Amino acid sequence: QVHLVESGGGSVQAGGSLRLSCVASEYIFGSYCMGWFRQAPGKEREGVAMIDRHGYPTYLDSVKGRFTVSKDNARNTLYLEMNRLKPEDTGLYYCAAERTITQCSRGLGVRGQYEYYYWGQGTQVTVSS
Question: In the chain, what percentage of residues exceed pLDDT 90?
């Protein structure tokens, strides 16, 4: 059983930055797709940034150029660097992992949540205007 624990959320003003972290209970990055998802109140959970087994990232259009996903294999840690934050980025951010899919970018968008199996508990990000 894979356990994921997120941290790094907080409250910032628009234009600010945050870095989220997700620590996995074991080394999985070489064989799993990894992704960051978010859920705003009253909205569906959507995938915003994915990274494949080789470290290749893909992004939801609304975060391209502002968010960067990366991983540190030695630390079993996934990161999401978020810059130029906007109020619409507010939400509960989740880290997720999936072993079976080959195209990790299938996690992007609102349907992406159904492609990933292992989830963390989430960390809150609030961006004020």
Answer: 97
